[in-house]
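Lab notebook page, bench 4
Experiment: in silico fold of construct C2
Operator: M.H.
Input chain length: 513 residues
Purpose: comparison with the prior construct
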Amino acid sequence: MTHGRDRRPVRVVMSSSFFRLLPSVVATLGVATVCVACKPALSPSPITPATAEPEPQSAVQQPAPDLVSLEAALANRYVTPDVSTEVLARLTVRSEAIADRPRPPANISLVIDTSASMRGEAIEHAREAAKALVQDLEKGDRVSVVAFHSRGDVLVASVELDDENRRQVLDALEGLEATGTTALAEGLALGMQQLQVDRRSDVVSRMVLLSDGVPNDQARARQVGATLAASSISLTALGLGLEFDEVLLAELASRCGGRFHYVEDAQQVAKMFQEEILDIEQLVAQGAVLELRAGPGVSILEVVGRSQAQAGVQTASVPVGDLVENDAREVVIRLAVDAHRDGASIELLDASLRYSDATAGAGTLQDSVFVAAEATADEAERRAGRDRETELVAVRALTASAALQAVAFARSGDVKRAKALVETSEKRARTLAKSEQDAGLKALADDLVKIRGTLSSLAPKRVSSANRGPAVGSRPHKKSKRGMPSPASAPQLGLAEAQGMRGAHGRAFEALH
């Protein structure tokens, strides 16, 4: 579909420079050589649903801004013929800056943990941070505040801010008090309801979650998170302190195309809230999603670091989230490729990026690339087809993903698998970091070491039948500081170890998103 301007084909240009060999890394990665060719990528064009009413002839359409692009590359442009192999593909989503434009209206729902574990400094800083965010919002923005403890409460129902009710919202925030347990699922559900009160395509709707504890019902929280993702609601999850469930919060944020941050000090909460406003001011695209379709004889083994993608599928949908000015998102994909004869061209992957324009009211736009490889028996040609930069990006992603997976494995009780993954991933990362003098990859390898030392402590502690607690009708369990029975799975980590693990886990998530 055209959109009132020339459609000049955009071709992803792949370098054919000879990069020096990294045989040890290739052996460890198991990456075969590959060739990439991208079909002309259409400039962003509006997508009109089949059920949409036709616009009047007099309607003036806004020109589609060319501010977001999709690029593709492979770790190698060639594969060895006559053998099945694995290929690493890299998709890069980029956005440009645009000057002198008003920011779009905001629709923010603050969902704040007010369980007993937030008593003291944590709840005080959460209260002040929420008040500062409300002060930073502009007239006409909408805001709601949900508190969750033993249940969820709507402290401030969704309201469009003006001079009069802003003061009322600030007064209501004084009612944030810490008590009870951690009904995270109820808080998420109420926050989603508040965002839907006046949700429009020209408004940035976002949920900001702050939690410092383990939820009462993780399964229910995941169900609500799936509904959030299906509703295309972006979620920023902030984990405060040392006892929150980092695996769950990271998963919720990833599924919604949002962000997750570890907040070590409660004083940082206000800064994190302020960054949400800054992002809205610089927003270029909303709700970006990558749609992937593997070619014949090809399957998607993994979208690295994205838990929602299943192994061995032909298609995958990957939420990328909102894009601000001068943003860049890297998505690494492991592909399994059937054997092909020498000289064959291999259709690897179609990738399409769909997003909502946040700058000119141009609606839903799309950009696409096509990735192909070639089989060659010429070893020199395969060596020359390597892409050093793409290989570095891929190994960084694999290393960061290993950090997240190792923590999740350990939390579920599979410490042996977690340790094996860390050992293999650290060795691979250090090999390439040393040969390429890559400081970023070395830092990720160092973070794996911090995580490795905590894995045994993260595993749920088995409770014998003799220690399962009192029978029904007897005295209750000893209460923890959150007012709940002390969980058998509570990690026994020292302060420095816990902070090191949390920080490493948070940096790994940010490296992937």
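Observations: The chain has 13 helices and 15 strands. The radius of gyration is 25 Å.
Next step: discuss at group meeting.
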